[in-house]
Amino acid sequence: MSLSIWYNLSNVYTMKNLVFLLCVIVSAFLVSCDDDGPYEDYLVARPILQDAITFKAEAVSVTEPVPIVSSGKIYAYGNYIFVNDVNKGFHVIDNQNPSSPESIAFIKLEGNNDISIKDDKIYADSYGDLVIFDISDITNITIQSRIVNAIYNNEVWLSNIEYPQADFYEYGDIDYDRDIVIGWEVVTERRSVEEYESRYNCDGCVVDSLESFNDSPQPSTGQGGSLARFKIIGDYLYVVDYSDINIFNITDVEDVKVLDDVQVAWDIETIYSQGDILFIGGSQGMYIYGIENPEKPEFMSEFRHGTACDPVVVDGDYAYVTLKGGNFCGNTESGLYVIDISNLENPELKVIYPMDGPNGLGVKGNTLFVCDGDSGLKIYDKTDAPNINLINALEDIVAYDVIPMASSLLMIGERVLYQYEYEGNDIRLLSEFPLN
Questions:
Q1: What does the pLDDT average to over 157-177?
Q2: What is the DSSP letter of 227?
Q3: How many helices (H) and strands (E) would you count in the chain?
């Protein structure tokens, strides 16, 4: 062997030793090396799938009453109250005696958050599908039909499943018309540090992380609260998802017509109506649409505000909007906004009243009810709107949403359904019904 060949081989050998030595040193810090750089242990999450047909067959049933897990929205229809159990279904409460309500059934409907009722038919969401129930016999509730992807595409189901803590989320090839994401499997895998860091430094690519998913009742129609996403007006059902108004002609419940969506914004949350006007609450503002043609809502104007959770109710020339800041709702200071809508094409903010953590609200005559979270229920006289006067406050409860009825008030709190009788400034507790 020549000296030059021996010299080159010794250099290679020496370099390998150096690389090996470097890896030994780095391994002391739980990092491994390979030819393409350092490696570490990372948590990798992959979705667990189930066949959609099997899933939907198992996701709907009517059972005996069960304890509520996470109380959501409320809906009143005739002598019955329906309480949403977030993403699980809704509880049916017999309210013929408001002083002593009775839970009579639980309608299991996975992926459900909202309902609306007309002519003994419940229209409910279930992971983007529209599901219709017949409650003409409340002791024998039956499912009438299910319209797949009527509200939004199944792909959005991913955002409704609680995400695990992980460094990588790998979705693979999911057929959203066939597969349902029912959970996640998290495993520890060795991945290069460069791959991990590149997730946040790629130009023009999608980051592989969680952040990438970013009224008065009519005859035969029930009444929801201010946090509702469903609204029935005449023969039409309006449903807001995260960006659109979904429109359904429900003249013939046997043949519901799915009409074209109307895009509003990427932040909408609630829907309310006054006459032939829709008021859409969103985290960035209130959007006003006319429905002279009920099949094609037309944009009229908007009122923009800082980022916050934003239900709205309307009475006469004023809209009342609660903005809740903090947590996932945004950085806007919490408050009650009174907005002049006498000119629908130019809504104008008149007054802001500070609030602690407002949620839903409701209006009946000259009385305005505001749920202020842990600070309880606040009751205002709005006779001189936009100037309103606090006339009563129930401070020893948690208030989530309200439905003002003819002479009583339904209010949902933390796993408790409250009913009050009110007249003028006087309010009296009728019942306090635990939901657990």
A1: 66
A2: T
A3: 4, 35
